[in-house]
Input
Amino acid sequence: MQRIPVNYIVQIDSFRLADFIYYWNYYEQPCSLLFFKPKTEGLVGIKLVVDSDEAATFLLRAKEKTGCKLYTKD
Output
């Protein structure tokens, strides 16, 4: 089901990145991911848009399991 699109930036430790991608694949790749390297050593940034229930479920589960931080992007 479609929702109003919300832009997120995910901050995650490099060693948890494989877990994040596992959940993305488990939920059948519900959204596009854009990876970027932040200025802090050992972290990875991911930009994504949550515009469906599947993408929201994926992001909440990934946050719960990996401990990543979510930021809304205006």
User: Anything to note?
Assistant: The CA atoms of residues 11 and 45 lie 5 Å apart.
